[in-house]
Amino acid sequence: MVAGSFDYSSVGPYLSYAKKSFRTAGRIKLDADGLPMVRYGEEFQYNPVTIAQFGLAKDAQGDISGLKKAADKLIDLQRSDGAFPYYFQFRPYMMTANYAPGWVSGMAQGQALSVLSRGWKKTGDNRYLKAGNAALSFLQVKHPDGPMTTLADLDPALSNYIFFEEYITDPHTYTLNGYMFTLIGLYDWSTITGSKTANRLFKDGIKTLEKILPLYDLGNFSSYDLYYITQPKYLVQVPPHVAARYHKVHLELLSALYSVTHVQLFHEVDSRWRKYVNQAP
């Protein structure tokens, strides 16, 4: 694999989502309106990130109707404070107890911004603008009530660096893919709507990514998060969490972020991590 070279655009196809499909057998089924529901336990539920990714895929495929369906569903799911909650229990791998229904995620806020910005741009429907502004507002709610936090759990000296948590945990786990998806959402919202707040958060978030990206490099693969660093010392220590499918996602997101920031570190890490794939047995 060679380093990614595509130019990301907020008004173009979202990443490689033109090729993305949503299977209706097994874990995902489509509801009466054609929107995906995800199986958790014995029930199918609406997952805000899955809805957002469905809309972004439809938009990338030129299906504006599908984009609108997803944007409308996100509005239906959105709370009055701007959050897109998950109305089912869930337990990330690093937790010992389930999240109660109503838990929130920075990734959901960020991916919703990517959908709502495109929906507003292509339809002029100001409901999407209002919902996106509310989503941006909630994204800035600080831990533990919201997804915004700092790097203080890595080092108190890094408390001036912001981070948006995919999973709100204590200590923070700093999940990489969810954070980069959120940065893309901020970029989309700032580029399409002209939001100065989103632009500032994007730039500050990029500084954070520059600071911590080397910590995800394991020398032969990328780590899903930094829990291997922040995990409490009194617990049985777990190794870095790695997964091939997330390594691929990391590569695509790094390539996209490099194309809009020209931060050389992103290109260098993207190139090195692609070589890890080539060297895999």
**Overall domain count:** 1
Radius of gyration: 18 Å
Shape: globular
- Please report the number of helical segments: 9
CATH class: Mainly Alpha
Order of helices and strands: EEEHHHHEEHHHHH
CATH topology name, in short, is Glycosyltransferase
* Mean pLDDT across residues: 95
GO molecular function: heparosan-N-sulfate-glucuronate 5-epimerase activity
InterPro entries: C5-epim_C, C5-epimerase
Protein name: D-glucuronyl C5-epimerase C-terminal domain-containing protein
Domain D-glucuronyl C5-epimerase C-terminal: 80-275
Descriptive notes:
- The protein is mainly α.
- It has one domain (17-220): Glycosyltransferase (Alpha/alpha barrel), CATH 1.50.10.20.
- The chain is 47% helix and 6% strand.
- The chain is built from nine helices and five strands.
- It has helices spanning 48-60, 64-77, 106-123, 126-139, 176-193, 196-212, 227-230, 244-261, 264-279, and strands spanning 28-30, 36-40, 43-45, 148-150, 162-164.
- The strands form two sheets. The chain has a three-stranded antiparallel sheet with strand order 1-2-3, covered by helices on one side. It has a two-stranded antiparallel ribbon with strand order 4-5.
- A hairpin with a 5-residue loop joins strand 1 (28-30) and strand 2.
- The chain starts with 27 loop residues before the first strand and ends with a helix.
- The relative contact order is 0.12.
- The mean pLDDT is 95.
- This is D-glucuronyl C5-epimerase C-terminal domain-containing protein.
- It comes from Manganibacter manganicus.
